[in-house]
Amino acid sequence: MVRARASRTNEEGIELSRILLLVAVLSLLTLAAFGQDDGQEYRILKVGGQETMSGYLTASLDIAPDDRTIGLSATQGFPFRTFPIDDEANVQELDIGNWYAGSRVRFSPSGKYILLQQLFYLDFAPNKDRPIKYEVVDVASGRSVLRLDDAYAAAITPDEEALLVLGKDGVRVVDISSGKSDPIKLARTGNAIAISTDGRFIAVAHRPTREEAATLTAIRNDKKALKTAEKLGQVVIIYDRSTLARVAMLDELFDKVFRLEYSPDGTDLWIHAKAHSRKGGNPNPNQSYVDVADARTHVMKRTSFPSLALFEPDFRASTDGTLFAIGSQQGRFMEVHLYDRSTGSMKDRFVLSYRLFEKMFSKAEFPSDGRLSFAFLPDGKRLLMTFGNRLIEWTYAP
């Protein structure tokens, strides 16, 4: 009797062990499944039904002000393409010349023009200023109406009549239709320029003078910091557009500013900067950031959005203005980080990882050339991003 009870106990123990082993195996399989697909909703788009690997590696994208058209630039000498949202097979092409590493694309306020900015595969002199190429293309005719080869930065005015150009001699105004340039009105060079959404102000990033650095709250009583600021730091000054008289200077010392941009709703000025490669105390040489200033009061806000992207990251606000997205990178894979715009807290992220490779349609697809550009779609639910010769449509708010 005792032996029978012991035998049953042993059998029950063996059966329990088998059940526990089965549960463990199923748990591992579940984890593996979630590791391959984290449940995010997305799809891979073939623009124009492209089936070959040659060409059309995407570099930058933008959405036209009509909220119906996608503009897509490519590397090498391939054409600029446009297509309606949700109809990527219906492609129109513009021959805009040869941009070896591609060009950043931005539509003008009404969509009459596109502004193309030269991009680089690698920047071997990230700490130095260098002129780059800009081109203004008339969308209706597909014709290039203005080309610059010696600008540090440029921006189309809200009335679309002129291009503000920042060069080695300062700021000049170039008429888009005629190509004629006004005399230099602001004889001070810089790294980046932006025009406020209402057209009233111009923001320019400069290397500070000792007097300007001495007015910054954080360093004005630190002689060593003041000296370093003159060599490695930059300040952002706001000018009146009509007179180019100084209006304000942001009370912040920045690293080298690569891009200034006013938010579409006119409330923020975004400052993208990256530390000098020789600056100490930076744990990651790829780290950059976007700081935020109030576009109306010219006072710095507390929000800041970091990035570890190898290239100058793209950044955008959602259509409703509540979210801020910025490109980044973790190890081998590029990522889009989604933040609450007002608090700076991360809400979500999309990783361009192996899971996308597994869903490729054929071997003709080229997954990535190391550059990530994206834009929020106007439905407030989806975000479109570049992925080699494909696009990824991520439904971030299903």
Give an overview of the whole structure.
With 398 residues, this protein is mainly beta. It has one domain (44-395): Methylamine Dehydrogenase, Chain H (7 Propeller). It is built from four helices and 27 strands. It has helices spanning 2-36, 210-213, 223-232, 354-358; strands at 41-45, 58-63, 69-74, 80-84, 92-94, 103-107, 113-118, 132-138, 143-151, 153-156, 162-167, 170-175, 192-195, 201-206, 235-240, 246-249, 256-262, 268-274, 288-294, 300-307, 315-317, 323-330, 333-340, 346-351, 374-376, 382-387, 390-395. The strands form seven sheets. It has a four-stranded antiparallel sheet with strand order 1-27-26-25, with no helix packed on it. Strands 2-3-4-5 form a four-stranded antiparallel sheet, with no helix packed on it. It has a four-stranded antiparallel sheet with strand order 6-7-8-9, with no helix packed on it. Strand 23 and strand 24 form a beta hairpin. The chain is globular. The chain starts with a helix and ends with a strand. The model is unreliable at 1-14 and 19-36 (pLDDT under 50).
